[in-house]
Amino acid sequence: MFGLREDWLRRRELIAAGFAEFGPQLVALQEVVTSDSVDQVVDVLGDGYQIVHHAERERDGQGISIASRWPITGVHEIDLQLGPRPAGFACSALVTEIAAPTGRMVFVNHLPDWQLTHEAERERQTVAVARFIEDLAGDARVPVVVAGDMDATPDAASIRFWTGKQSLDGISVCYRDCWTAARPPSPGHTFTPENHLTTTAEVGDWELELGRRIDYILVRCSDHGPSLYVEDCRRLFDKPSGHTWPSDHFGVGAVLSPVTPTGRPVP
Q: Which among 138, 108, 126 is positioned nearest to 26, based on CA atoms?
């Protein structure tokens, strides 16, 4: 995600500055390297967070992690190596139970298969994660936030499933897409040729990329709407400093509230 090692120090500065400005309480990070000698999560977030790393990592230590300023009371890993084609990629889901100021909540980092041709795998992986969340969270009033690089556009079956537009494997859920809630006119591309790191990634394999929104923050809904109010949603790390881009993906940040715009608690 962060490119060659010699570029990392400058990119680390840019990402750390972006996180410091936004000030998130919960962070889902993808493709970050952790090892006995390196922890890129600490590098960009600094102190003040409880950090958990998924055990499924690639040979260079790359994988997904979660950071929280609130106490993490439970950690669960979901195996997404479902079938032969995901082999060789650390697709995974990390589920945390959080003691938020308003009570228990569930925060999930979801990283399914990335290949354009693997939507069938993403569907199976998404259903596995959604089933686990429903069993874990139970009460529909428990807020659940699912974030991550989901490698699928809003019209894909896996994202349509998350947002309640279709069922998969005989079940259905509904999550509010924070970007659509806060900025409906904008496509919000997060993997785009605007960013030269995208078109040069993987030795130029993405040179013909047109631009897609594949990174999301989703809020679980009850029968009447989302369990948290989406006050705002924005792209992060979407501008270069000189010729240096922070990452080949733009980040996504959301401001969520337990109170509706009229001042009532979210139902």
A: 108
Per-residue DSSP letter, 109: E
Kindly state the DSSP code that residue 250 receives in the 8-state scheme.
-
Cα distance between residue 172 and residue 245, in whole Å: 38
Asked if 58 contacts 99 with a C-beta cutoff of 8 angstroms, the reply is no
Q: 61-117, pLDDT tens digit by residue?
A: 899 999 999 999 999 999 898 888 877 788 999 999 999 999 999 999 999 999 999
Task: Check: CB of residue 217 under 8 Å from CB of residue 252.
Answer: yes
Q: Is 34 helix (H, G, I), strand (E, B) or coil?
A: strand
53-85: b or e for each residue (b if 16 or more CB lie within 10 Å)? bbebbeeebbbbbbbbebebeeeebbebbbeee
In degrees, to the nearest 5, what angle opens at C-alpha 258 toward C-alphas 253 and 261? 90
Q: Are 16 and 43 in contact (CB under 8 A)?
A: yes
C-alpha dist (Å) from residue 117 to 86, 120, 122: 11, 8, 10
C-alpha neighbours within 13 Å on the C-beta side of residue 245: 23
User: What stretches of 163-223 show up as alpha helix (H) in DSSP?
Assistant: 178-182, 196-204
Does the pTM surpass 0.70? The reply is: yes
